[in-house]
Automatic annotation (TrEMBL):
<dbReference type="GO" id="GO:0006109">
    <property type="term" value="P:regulation of carbohydrate metabolic process"/>
</dbReference>
<dbReference type="GO" id="GO:0005829">
    <property type="term" value="C:cytosol"/>
</dbReference>
<dbReference type="GO" id="GO:0045947">
    <property type="term" value="P:negative regulation of translational initiation"/>
</dbReference>
<comment type="subunit">
    <text>Homodimer; the beta-strands of each monomer intercalate to form a hydrophobic core, while the alpha-helices form wings that extend away from the core.</text>
</comment>
<protein>
    <recommendedName>
        <fullName>Translational regulator CsrA</fullName>
    </recommendedName>
</protein>
<dbReference type="InterPro" id="IPR003751">
    <property type="entry name" value="CsrA"/>
</dbReference>
<keyword id="KW-0694">RNA-binding</keyword>
<dbReference type="GO" id="GO:0044781">
    <property type="term" value="P:bacterial-type flagellum organization"/>
</dbReference>
<dbReference type="InterPro" id="IPR036107">
    <property type="entry name" value="CsrA_sf"/>
</dbReference>
<keyword id="KW-0963">Cytoplasm</keyword>
<keyword id="KW-0810">Translation regulation</keyword>
<dbReference type="GO" id="GO:1902208">
    <property type="term" value="P:regulation of bacterial-type flagellum assembly"/>
</dbReference>
<keyword id="KW-0678">Repressor</keyword>
<keyword id="KW-1005">Bacterial flagellum biogenesis</keyword>
<dbReference type="GO" id="GO:0006402">
    <property type="term" value="P:mRNA catabolic process"/>
</dbReference>
<dbReference type="GO" id="GO:0048027">
    <property type="term" value="F:mRNA 5'-UTR binding"/>
</dbReference>
<comment type="function">
    <text>A translational regulator that binds mRNA to regulate translation initiation and/or mRNA stability. Usually binds in the 5'-UTR at or near the Shine-Dalgarno sequence preventing ribosome-binding, thus repressing translation. Its main target seems to be the major flagellin gene, while its function is anatagonized by FliW.</text>
</comment>
Length: 70
């Protein structure tokens, strides 16, 4: 993991297409702006985990349905 210190207005680039801009720091909260091509999905970590958990739950339910039909 790379850990960087940045100030408001400073940026971080990921590859050629993704720019992270520090827009505000207030207490323990940091607000960032992300400029990326529309082809790149940008999603908060907790939402990604929720989606993953939901998908896993759906698979289990579908497997249970197949077991009942046998």
């Amino acid at each position: 993991m790379l850990v960087l210190s940045r100030k408001v207005g400073e940026t971080i680039w990921i590859g050629e297409d993704v720019e992270i801009i520090i827009t505000e720091v207030k207490g323990d909260q940091v607000k960032i702006g992300i400029q990326a091509p529309r082809s790149i999905d940008v999603i908060r970590g907790e939402l990604r985990q929720d989606i993953s958990d939901s998908n896993a739950e759906s698979v289990i339910k579908n497997l249970d349905i197949f077991k009942l039909n046998k």
